């Protein structure tokens, strides 16, 4: 097949050269409720790749993105005990869940991904909506029981931070401690 970015022959949807040039993460951070949110990319930089999310290509592209960011992070991550990684609303949209792909990529010595834990009861789309709309239409998260108290929250895109803020609150109410959050891309970075 051809590399999506440079169109040269490649066994992967994005060739290894393009992965190195375009998908080497540049970390950015912000905080929500005093909890650090680390993003691997600027939304603008990988926008076209993120737009594959709702197509057949999405699974492959998200897998490549996750390998370059979440997997690398997890391999270098050291801690005193094993942490639970919980993805935001990892229900399957089109045969796969994009946040579950990211979460799975964290599997490592100190990180244990857990699935189907945090589900939104409200499935209204936030795409293109402002913060006010997001605030009056909360995700209404339902948290299933899981073992372990120290948590990493995982999402694909952070925009206003409303979703992660709500997820952090839900965790706190269940006496779980969110140590930090990881997102693939930050949409507010210029
Ligand atoms: Zn290429």
Secondary-structure blueprint of this entry?
Blueprint: H1 16-22, E1 28-32, E2 35-42, H2 43-50, H3 58-76, E3 83-88, H4 98-104, E4 111-120, H5 131-136, E5 141-143, E6 150-158, H6 162-173, E7 177-186
Parallel strand pairs: 2-7, 3-4, 3-6, 6-7
Antiparallel strand pairs: 1-2, 4-5
Helix pairs in contact: 3-4
The protein binds zinc ion (ZN).
The site of zinc ion has 9 residues, from α1.
In summary, what is this structure?
With 190 residues, the protein is an alpha/beta fold.
Enumerate the spans where pLDDT stays under 50 for 5 or more consecutive residues: none
Instruction: Work out the strand percent.
Output: 25-35%
Q: Describe the strand arrangement of the main beta sheet, using strand numbers.
A: 1-2-7-6-3-4-5
Largest sheet: 7 strands, mixed
Keywords, separated by commas or semicolons:
single chain, 190 residues, alpha/beta, seven-stranded mixed β-sheet, binds zinc ion
Description:
There is one protein chain. The chain has helices spanning 16-22, 43-50, 58-76, 98-104, 131-136, 162-173; strands spanning 28-32, 35-42, 83-88, 111-120, 141-143, 150-158, 177-186. The protein has 190 residues and is α/β, with parallel strands linked by helices. The chain has a seven-stranded mixed β-sheet with strand order 1-2-7-6-3-4-5, sandwiched between helices. The termini are far apart. The structure holds zinc ion (ZN). Zinc ion (ZN) is lined by residues 3, 5-6, 8, 10, 14-15, 17-18.
């Amino acid at each position: 097949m051809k590399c999506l970015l440079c169109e040269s022959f490649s066994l992967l949807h994005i060739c290894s050269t393009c992965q190195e040039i375009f998908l080497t993460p540049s970390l950015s951070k912000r905080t929500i409720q005093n909890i650090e949110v680390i993003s691997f990319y600027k939304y603008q930089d990988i926008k076209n790749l993120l737009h594959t999310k709702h197509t057949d290509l999405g699974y492959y592209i998200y897998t490549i993105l996750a390998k370059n960011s979440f997997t690398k992070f997890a391999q270098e991550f050291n801690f005193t005990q094993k942490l639970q990684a919980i993805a935001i609303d990892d229900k399957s949209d089109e045969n796969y869940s994009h946040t579950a792909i990211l979460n799975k990529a964290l599997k490592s010595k100190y990180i244990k991904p857990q699935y189907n834990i945090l589900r939104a009861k409200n499935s209204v789309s936030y795409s293109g909506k402002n913060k006010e709309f997001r605030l009056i239409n909360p995700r209404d998260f339902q948290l299933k029981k899981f073992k372990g108290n120290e948590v990493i929250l995982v999402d694909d895109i952070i925009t206003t931070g409303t979703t992660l803020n709500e997820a952090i609150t839900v965790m706190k109410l269940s006496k779980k401690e969110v140590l930090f959050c990881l997102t693939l891309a930050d949409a507010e970075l210029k």
